[in-house]
Design brief:
Blueprint (H helix, E strand, L loop, with lengths): L4 H17 L6 H11 L6 H10 L1 H11 L1 H4 L2 E2 L5 E2 L1 H32 L2 H21 L15 H16 L5 H11 L4 H27 L5 H28 L6 H21 L2
Helix pairs in contact: 1-2, 1-11, 2-7, 3-10, 4-10, 4-11, 6-8, 6-10, 7-9, 7-12, 8-9, 9-10
Length: 278
C-alpha cells in the first residue's frame, strides 16, 4: 500500500512537534504520545513505537551540526591532535549517561508497558512544571556557581544523569526539562545547563534509537522508510530553530513560562480524558 498525502502531512506535523518539544523543557515524548491520540499514523503498532523514538535522530543531528566545533575533540591542522578539554567534557557526558543507559537497557519494555499513557504524561507535566516555578523562585537573584561546562564536576554530571533517568522512566517529564532542573539545583547557570542538556542528548538518543532498531530489526517497508526519513528531516530543521530560540531566550529569561505551560497542558489532558474517555 502506497503512502498517501494525508499520512505525509501527519508525518510532517509529528516532525514539527518533535523538533519544537525535544529541546524546550516541555516533554517531546509526552507531546508525541498525546498527539498520537488525535493524529493516528496508518502504521503498525510496532512501527509506531520505533518511529516515536527514531524520529529523535533528526533532532539530535541538529545539535551535532550546530555545536560541531564545540563537541568534536579532534583536529587535523598541522597534523592530528586532540583537544583534552573536549575529551574531559565527553567523559563527563558518559558519566551522566550511566544511570539512564543501564536502567533503560534493562527495563525499557517494562517502562513502555506501564508508564507510556496519558495519565503518566499529565501527572509528570504538572509535577515538573511546579518544580520549574519553585526552583526559579528559590534561585531568584542568586548568582550561579557554575557558568561553563568545564566547571561541572563528575559528581554533578552523575546527579544530572539521575534526573535524566527520571525522564527515561516517566514520559511527560521531559529529558531536557529533568536535566535542566537537576543542573539548576546544583547551581549551574541556565545557559550552561541548556548546553550540557543538548550534548547529553547525543548518546542518550542515539542509544535509545539503536535499542529500538535492534529490537524491531531492519525489515521496513518502503512507506515506513519514507515516514522515518521525512519525520527525521522535519525534526532536524525545526530543531535548529528551536535550539537557537532557547539559547537566546535563557540569556534574558527564566524557565517559569515553561513551568506554567506544563501545568496548564497537564490539567487540560486530565480534563479531556476524564470527560471524553481514554
Amino acid at each position: 500500500m502506497g503512502l498517501g498525502f494525508i499520512e505525509i502531512l501527519k508525518t510532517i506535523l509529528l516532525g514539527i512537534v518533535e523538533g519544537v518539544t525535544e529541546w524546550l523543557p516541555i516533554s517531546s515524548t509526552g507531546h508525541m504520545i498525546l498527539f498520537d491520540e488525535f493524529i493516528h499514523l496508518n502504521v503498525t503498532p510496532e512501527f509506531k513505537e520505533i518511529f516515536l523514538v527514531v524520529i529523535q535522530l533528526g533532532a539530535i543531528l541538529a545539535v551535532v551540526v550546530m555545536f560541531w566545533k564545540t563537541i568534536f575533540p579532534f583536529h587535523f591542522k598541522g597534523g592530528f591532535g586532540v583537544d583534552k578539554e573536549k575529551i574531559i567534557m565527553w567523559l563527563k557526558i558518559l558519566v551522566a549517561s550511566i544511570p539512564a543507559g543501564i536502567i533503560g537497557i534493562l527495563f525499557d519494555d517494562y517502562f513502555n508497558a506501564w508508564f507510556y499513557n496519558y495519565w503518566t504524561v499529565a501527572i509528570m507535566l504538572i509535577v515538573f512544571g511546579i518544580l520549574f516555578i519553585w526552583i526559579e523562585n528559590a534561585h531568584k537573584n542568586k548568582l550561579p556557581k557554575v557558568n561553563d561546562i568545564s566547571e561541572i564536576t563528575y559528581k554533578a554530571a552523575f546527579i544530572i544523569g539521575v534526573f535524566q533517568l527520571i525522564a527515561a522512566v516517566f514520559p511527560g517529564t521531559s529529558r531536557s526539562g529533568a536535566t535542566i532542573i537537576g543542573a539548576l539545583l546544583l547551581g549551574i547557570s541556565r545557559t550552561t545547563a541548556a548546553e550540557f542538556t543538548f550534548f547529553l542528548a547525543i548518546p542518550a538518543m542515539f542509544g535509545g534509537s539503536a535499542i529500538k532498531l535492534a529490537k524491531f530489526g531492519m525489515a521496513f517497508t518502503s512507506s515506513e522508510i519514507i515516514i522515518l526519513i521525512l519525520g527525521m528531516a522535519v525534526a532536524f530543521v525545526v530543531s535548529m530553530l528551536s535550539i537557537k530560540f532557547l539559547m537566546n531566550y535563557v540569556k534574558k529569561h527564566d524557565f517559569k513560562v515553561f513551568g506554567w505551560y506544563r501545568i496548564v497542558l497537564g490539567a487540560l489532558v486530565i480534563a479531556y480524558f476524564l470527560f471524553f474517555g481514554a
